[in-house]
Design a protein that fits this description.
With 287 residues, this protein is mainly alpha-helical. The chain has 2 domains: 64 residues; 212 residues, Up-down Bundle (Four Helix Bundle (Hemerythrin (Met), subunit A)), CATH 1.20.120.80. It is found in: Cell membrane; Membrane. Belongs to the cytochrome c oxidase subunit 3 family. It is a multi-pass membrane protein. Its EC number is 7.1.1.9.
């Protein structure tokens, strides 16, 4: 930029600390899944550390923004950064959906004697491919007893998330038009819908383990079910935390009609999470 200047943020320790906290949480989660309760303290410490880093990192960025340090160049940088972040999230979930499609389209038919690698059927000659896979080929692995009907809790959660995108859009439009109270009320509705989704997802997980036999040990169906819905649920939790912080900022009068990218970035993230759920509802629950 010739003839002008723009703000260069100071060096930040938060990215490094966030990586360490996330690594601790993942290490604890892995230990918990493999070795049991021994991994729980590490997972909890990692989770609390992530929440602390998010809080302090948000605080610093909000302070910089409210101090008038950001200009048009920084706004473009934030938009590009958020865009690339969401693209990385698209690739993240694409890998998991790819796993699901690979298992259903290739691996199971091969084990049933179909396709170019049908020789794999020699491993378990009595296996019959089907999805959902209720009877894994290895008799040592117990499959689920039954699967969820997509037209009960999953449909309710779908309606909740679709509705939350609508309420968030109304809040965003209200903010752009200068109707702060409208933005606050509809954003609060979005947060409540997010909390409802998380609660219902938790109840569904309880039902899965207690009555349906859908566990992480229930063969490839249980593994892919929790891999996809679990990571999505984590994103909903993170998105709800972000929306709560945005709601507090709206309440305190932060944002204006022309300067509210923090709100807009949170909306981008939330809409992305909603779109992912539509894919999950379609390919995990319905088909």
């Amino acid at each position: 930029m010739s003839g002008g200047t723009y703000y260069v943020p100071a060096s930040s320790k938060w990215p490094a600390l966030a990586s360490l906290a996330m690594g601790a949480m993942m290490a604890g989660t892995g230990t918990l899944l493999v070795y049991g309760i021994a991994g729980l303290p590490v997972m909890v410490v990692g989770l609390l550390a992530i929440l602390a880093v998010m809080t302090l990192w948000f605080r610093d960025v909000i302070h910089e923004s409210r101090s008038g340090l950001y200009d048009a160049q920084m706004d473009r940088s934030f938009r590009w950064g958020m865009g690339w972040f969401i693209f990385s999230e698209v690739m993240f979930f694409a890998a998991f959906f790819g796993t699901l499609f690979y298992v259903r389209t290739f691996a199971l038919p091969w084990l049933d004697g179909e396709g170019a690698k049908g020789v794999a059927a020699l491993l378990w000659p009595d296996f019959t491919a089907s999805w959902p896979l209720m009877d894994p080929p290895d008799a040592a692995i117990e499959g689920p007893h039954e699967t969820f009907s997509p037209w009960h809790l999953p449909l309710v959660n779908t309606l909740i998330l679709v509705s939350s995108s609508i309420t968030l859009t109304v809040a965003h439009e209200g903010l752009k038009e200068g109707y702060r109270e409208t933005a606050r009320h509809w954003l609060l509705g979005t947060v409540l819908l997010g909390l409802c989704f998380i609660t219902i997802q938790g109840f569904e997980y309880y039902e899965a383990y207690s009555h349906y036999g859908i566990t992480l040990q229930a063969g490839i169906y249980g593994a892919t079910f929790f891999l996809l819905t679990g990571f999505h649920g984590l994103h909903v939790i993170i998105g709800t935390i972000i929306l709560i912080s945005i709601l507090v900022r709206v309440q305190r009068g932060h944002f204006s009609r022309d300067d509210h990218f923090g709100f807009e970035a949170a909306a981008w993230y939330w809409h992305f999470v909603d779109v992912v759920w539509i894919g999950l509802f379609t390919f995990v629950y319905v088909f």
